[in-house]
Amino acid sequence: RTTMKSLQFISAEAFVSNAEFARKSLGAVAHDLFPLLFKASYLLEQGEVIHDLVENWPLFDFNMGKLLGATLDYQEDLSHRTCSMCLESCLTGLRDYVLNQSPPYMKKLRVVDLTGIKDVEVQFCKCKKTMGRWARAQLLSKLCSELLVYLQQAQCNPGTFEISINVLIDLFVTERNYDLVVKALLKKCSCPLKICCVAFRSDNLSLQKFFYIIKLTDPSLLRKLEIVHNVHLEMEHLEMLFNNIHFPVLMSLTLPARTFNVRRFTATDEQMLAHIGEKMGEMTQLTELNMPFSILTGRIQKLLSPLKTPLKILDVSNCSLNHADMAFLANSFHANHLEALDLSGHNLPELYPSTFFKLLSHCSSVLRSLTLEDCNIQDTHVNMLILGLSPCQKLQEFKFIGNPLSSQALKHLFTFLCELPMLKNVEFPVPRDCYPIGITYPIDDTSLCRYDHQKYERVAEELNLILLQANREDVKASTPLFGSYDAAVQETNNELGAYLIKSFKETLEKFTTSFNKMS
């Protein structure tokens, strides 16, 4: 698919394609052409030109999402191209903007927004080398620290110290880049480039380090907080976090697995849960809540009823919800606003079919994404599911991996899915008849790949043919058995794997020590 370019954009491409000429001529370029030249340079991966454009940026703001997004001159959105060379050129150009010899009054730049960059699975840049969110946090922190050292050692123009540029970024911090990011945040006041963290993700970090760095980020600016893998945050730590730190503009909160476990609850724990609910109620902008793999049986109302703003995104997958929880969700004011809902790991057809369909009907006018993985949806439930999904005309994504559905049932469902006008992505299960007879659901990891691969390929072809015949080539259908693509996990999987091995080794050593003492 080719995207139309204006004559102005074609001229910009021609100008930047000769890097040496473009770099020499930047001084004669009108200021309002810099955004156009930046997008053209990014498309052609002209790193040196990108660097010089940023180093000499003449405008008040530099917003990556807007600069690379769809424009009148070139409709294609390039913000999902996380090309390592282009992004490094941007960030080093920003450092050199501070250092170059232009008089301070010429330097108008006040805000750099890096938050519009999107990390995706398939990259279209020629170098095929990406710079993900973790690496961007690492490089920006490194450049800030180096800049400060240089300014302290060199004889700089006194006006350089008056430069103050807020750099908005989504920080992703693990054990491996923790020291570097902390160092940059501690020196924020004296550095001309000021890291402003608007979204923070933490993986593989001790609680002590997490609590320390979250205070340094300036929580008053934080719109999104993700505490995900190997941060051992439990309910009492969450209460401590909310008691000590105020998040006035927080819109999105993701908690790690097993933050809550009501099976171990005491009377004190019940009070603590209620208090956490009240604290979340004070977050008047909170519209996204992800709490997968916590055990919340019978407590959803206590946790969510204090919220004053309706949730738009809710993930309560594998949370052992009971009928009372589902009834609360279906009847709550959140139901009419839910744009993304994940109820995976709940036996919907057996436990609360009517309540689930009531919830679905309430959110049908706004629902964009629905995930029902491992929900025991069988062939006999497909007609009812179709009935429930029919009003969901805005649905863009439907994931239902791990359900015991036959090839025939999937074909029936796909014929219906073609009718949903906004649908773009479907994740469907390996058909039950591709597995050996007698397979039990949910399928354990050891049996997950033991299916008839040739038969699956034939069925997948037939399902894609149904889409093709309905002129729905725009719908991507796949079976990611081990979960959807996660850019953050992909970028740090080596560290994550090493951490898991270390944890397993420590557990084994403790077990051996205890066993030897008993012997």
UniProtKB/TrEMBL annotation:
<comment type="similarity">
    <text>Belongs to the PRAME family. LRRC14 subfamily.</text>
</comment>
<dbReference type="GO" id="GO:0005737">
    <property type="term" value="C:cytoplasm"/>
</dbReference>
<dbReference type="InterPro" id="IPR050694">
    <property type="entry name" value="LRRC14/PRAME"/>
</dbReference>
<keyword id="KW-0433">Leucine-rich repeat</keyword>
<dbReference type="InterPro" id="IPR032675">
    <property type="entry name" value="LRR_dom_sf"/>
</dbReference>
<keyword id="KW-0677">Repeat</keyword>
<protein>
    <recommendedName>
        <fullName>Leucine-rich repeat-containing protein 14B</fullName>
    </recommendedName>
</protein>
